[in-house]
Design goal:
The protein is of the alpha/beta class. The protein has helices at about 10-20, 35-40, 55-60, 75-90, 100-110, 120-130, 160-165, 205-210, and strands at about 5, 25-30, 45-50, 70, 95-100, 115, 140-145, 145-150, 175-180, 185, 200-205. The protein folds into two domains: about 5-120, Rossmann fold (3-Layer(aba) Sandwich); about 135-215, Regulator of K+ conductance, C-terminal domain (Alpha-Beta Plaits, 2-Layer Sandwich), CATH 3.30.70. The longest helix has 14 residues, at about 120-130. Bound molecules: adenosine-5'-triphosphate. The site of adenosine-5'-triphosphate has 19 residues, from α1.
Length: about 220
Amino acid sequence: MAQYAVIGLGRFGTTLGLQLVKMNHDVMGVDSDRKVVESLSGLLTHTVIADVTDENALLELGLTDYDAVIVAIGENLQASLLCVVHLKNLGIENLWVKATSASHHLILNRLGVTRIVHPEEEMGKRTAQALSYPMIREYMALGNKQYIVEVPVVERLAGRVLVDLLADVKGKVFGILLKRRDQLYPCPHEQFVIEKDDILILAGDRLSLTKLAPQLI
Ligand code: ATP
């Protein structure tokens, strides 16, 4: 169990905090809006009303004891940046911050935060991906235009041998895992016969995966 502090309890901060609690972590939620804080008391591990542009208020929160601090203030750029400057002064090392614009990102980058998060942009990309390639349920970018994708096997593909399914992209797309109900089959061999509702995990470059995608419907 880790300890996280989420500063700014808008939709993103609240969802993040509640999800971390669900994952059995200890979460302190901080916001200047009393109503917001009261609505989350009892749902997050601790809740505090504080104006995080005030360095002394931040100091009192004892944030150096936390595994990570997440600043989820978006709209109020000044409050977000001032809070980050104070947190850096307090020596917070693992600092994740939500950014809402390119200039916000640039300044956060200069301030040396650990990770900059763009929830709207990232969700927009994922939604576009889901619309264009509905056969791909999840994906993970590995860099260099290479991806890992999760493909649920539809009825039409049941009974196909893996090597045939991947014939057009041989040597470019690899079956790295197959999940059948509660069973995992790492590196399924080429003659593996897939069944409906299997989950196939493939790795490959974007071009080859795009070529394969229509055959997975
Ligand atoms: P979302 O899109 O996640 O709903 P947002 O990007 O619109 O959020 P804001 O509305 O700017 O983000 O801020 C989120 C929360 O941060 C709000 O609940 C707001 O009360 C809180 N907040 C803003 N300024 C401060 C501050 N100085 N101190 C503490 N909390 C603050």
